[in-house]
Amino acid sequence: MPGMVLFGRRWAIASDDLVFPGFFELSLRVVWWIGILTLYLLHRGKLDCAGGALLSSYMIVLLVLLAVIICTLSAIVCVSMKGTICNPGPRKSMPKLLYIRLLLFLPEMVWASLGAAWITDDIQCDRTVVNGIIATVIVSWIIIVSTVVTIIIVFDPLGGKMAPYSSAGPGHLDSPESSQLLNGLRTAAASVWETRVKLLCCCIGKDDHTRVAFSSTAELFSTYFSDTDLVPSDIAAGLTLLHQQQDGIRNSQEPDEVVTHSPGPPQEADLDAELENCHHYMQFAAAAYGWPLYIYRNPFTGLCKIGGDCCRTRTAEYDLVGGDQLSCHFGSILQTTGLQYRDFIHISFHDKVYELPFIVALDHRKESVVVAVRGTMSLQDILTDLSAESESLNLECGVQDCSAHKGISQAARYVYQRLVNDGILSQAFSIAPEYRLVVVGHSLGAGAAALLAIMLRSSYPQVRCFAFSPPRGLLSKSLYEYSKTFIVSLVLGKDVIPRLSVTNLEDLKKRILRVIAHCNKPKYKILLRGCRYELFGGNPDNFPTELDGGAQGHLTQPLLGEQSLLTHGSPTYSFSSDSPLESPTKYPPLYPPGRIIHLEEEGASGRFCRAAAQYSARWAHESQFSKILIGPKMLTDHMPDVLVKALDSVVSDRAAYVFCPPGGGSNVDMV
C-alpha cells in the first residue's frame, strides 16, 4: 500500500508484492542459466555442423541476456523486501527497476522468436543441443505469456483516475478539486463494478429485478473499495494480522464467567426446548437445498437412494405438491425430512433474483405447517444477498422504523405472495387447521424466513421462526426487538455470515488499516508466518504488530494521505477514532433476527479437523456478533452439514445431562 504508479496510472499491485513472484522467476532463471551454460560447455565442440555457428551465437547471447535479467530480478526481490506495508520509502527505486525489467522483455522476445525460426530450419547438429534450444524457446514464451497475463490481472481500470491520489499529499487531498475528482472516481468505480458483475453473471436473464440487483451490487462494491488505496495482498496481510491479534487477545483474557448452562431452571428448560426444536427443524432447512446438499452430505450412498427419482417421469404423486422443476430434488427432500410425499403441500425450485425456492409441508410429529426457504446456491441468490441497501417495510405490527435488507425483504415478499395469493397456506390449514405455522431457513433462507414470519404474524399470531446462521445485516433495531418473541436464531462458532453487514465490513476495513499501519514487519514475512500459523498454529504473541515509541510516527506518516482520502471517500469513517462506526443513510446499522443461541466449540481442536469437536450452547446477545472474527472456520462454520453435525452433538450431550441432572430433571414443552 499504496498501489504502484507506472506509466502514469495506478496498478493493483504494491512495490512489496514482488518478493514471491520475483523469487520464483529468479530461481527459474538461475536454473535455466546453469542449464544453458552446462549445455554450451559440454557440447560446444559439436557445433561445427551446419547452422552450428548460429546456435553457438544464440546460446552465448542468451547467457548474457539471462545474466542481466537475473541481476535485475535480484535487485527487484531485494528492494521489494525492504520497508513495511505503510512505509514504501525504502522501495522508491522499484518503478525504475520494473521499467528496466520490462525493457528486457523486448530483446528476450526477439531472441525467442529467432530461436523458434532457427529451430524450424533443418539444422543437422547434436540432438541434445537442439532439444535444449527448443526447451529454451518454450520456457521463454511461457514466461512472456505469463507476464502478459499478470499485467492484465493487475490492471486497474480506474488507475488513470487514482494515480493523482497515490502521489498527492494531504494538503492536496483537502482541496475542492480533490473532492470533485473523487466524486468522479466514485461514479467511474460504480460503472466499472457494474460491468464486472454483468460479465460474471452473463448467463442470468436481464429482467428488471436483475438490472436493479446489478446496480445495487455495483454501488455496494464501489462504496466499499473505491475510498481506499489497498491492493489485494494488503487485505490478505491485514486479515492474517487480525487473526493473530484476535487469538492473542483471547488467550490473554480471563476464562469466561458465563457458564454453558444457565443457572436458572426456566432459562435452562427454555434453552433445551429451543435446541430440540432447532435440531428438528434444521432438517427442513437442509432439505430446501435439494439434491446438491444431500449428495454432498452422503457422497457414497446419496445417488443410489435418490437415483430413481431423478429418472422417474412426473406422476400423479408429484402433481400433488404443485411444484415445479423438481427433477432429483423431491427424492432428496423425502430422504432428508423422513416425510411421505402426501405430507408436502408445495415444492418450488423456481430461482430468480429476489425469488427463492421454498417448500411447504405438514410436520405431524410437531403438529406444524412448515415453510422452509432455501439459502444461497446460485448467482441469482448472490445478487439477492448483495442488494444490501435498507428499505422501509409496510407492516401491520405497530413498530416504528420498519426497515430491512432490501434484497432479502424482496425475496420474503415474493414467498409471502406465493403463500397467500396462491392459497398455499390456506390449503395446508384446510387439511390440518389445528396445526401452527413454523418458518425455517438457513443463511439467505434464514433471513427471508425471519422477514416472512414478521409479514405473516398479523394473520398467524402463533407463527414461530427458526433462523439458522442468518445474516446480521437484516433488521432495524426496532424490528429486531419485536422479533425476539417469536424468532430464534442459531449461530455456530465463528460463522462469518451472522456477523456480516455493511457496518461490520466498514469496521473490518478500519481494523485492517489500523493493524497494517502499526505493523513493523515487511509484508512477505507477515504472509509467510500467516500461512504457517493457519496451517500449524502457534503462539500469536510471538509476532509483534505494534510499533515502539518514535518509530511509530515515522512509519505511519505515509498514511496521512490515506487518512484524508478515507475521510473524503467515506464520511463516517475516522481512521484514528475508536468511536462506534456509523453507516451512511443508505446503509444504516442492521441487526440479526430474534433471540440468538450460540454454539461454541469447547477446548482446542485441529485447525481444520472437527471429527471430535464438542460444543456448548448458550443464549447470546446480538452485540457479541458486532465484529467479524477471522479464522479458518469462519466459512466452514456456516456450512449446513457442519451445523447439522454440531446440533446432533450438542443435543445428544444435553440430553444426557438432562437425563441425569445433578438436581433432578424437568419437563419441557416443545413446539
Automatic annotation (TrEMBL):
Reaction(s) this enzyme catalyzes, per UniProt: 1,2,3-(4Z,7Z,10Z,13Z,16Z,19Z-docosahexaenoyl)-glycerol + H2O = 1,2-di-(4Z,7Z,10Z,13Z,16Z,19Z-docosahexaenoyl)-glycerol + (4Z,7Z,10Z,13Z,16Z,19Z)-docosahexaenoate + H(+); a 1,2-diacyl-sn-glycerol + H2O = a 2-acylglycerol + a fatty acid + H(+); 1,2,3-tri-(5Z,8Z,11Z,14Z-eicosatetraenoyl)-glycerol + H2O = 1,2-di-(5Z,8Z,11Z,14Z-eicosatetraenoyl)-glycerol + (5Z,8Z,11Z,14Z)-eicosatetraenoate + H(+); a triacylglycerol + H2O = a diacylglycerol + a fatty acid + H(+)
Fungal lipase-type domain span: 370-503
EC number: 3.1.1.116
CDD domains xref list: Lipase_3 (cd00519)
Compartment(s) of residence: Cell membrane
GO cellular component, as recorded: cytoplasm; plasma membrane
BP term (GO), one: arachidonate metabolic process
InterPro entries with a match to the protein in the record: AB_hydrolase_fold (IPR029058), DAG_Lipase-Related (IPR052214), Fungal_lipase-type (IPR002921)
Transmembrane segments: 20-43, 55-77, 98-120, 132-155
MF terms (GO), sorted A to Z: metal ion binding; monoacylglycerol lipase activity; triacylglycerol lipase activity
Highest taxon above the source species: Eukaryota
Enzyme class: hydrolase
Cofactor: Ca(2+)
Function summary: Lipase that catalyzes the hydrolysis of arachidonic acid (AA)-esterified diacylglycerols (DAGs) to produce the principal endocannabinoid, 2-arachidonoylglycerol (2-AG) which can be further cleaved by downstream enzymes to release arachidonic acid (AA) for cyclooxygenase (COX)-mediated eicosanoid production. Preferentially hydrolyzes DAGs at the sn-1 position in a calcium-dependent manner and has negligible activity against other lipids including monoacylglycerols and phospholipids.
Name of this protein: Diacylglycerol lipase-beta
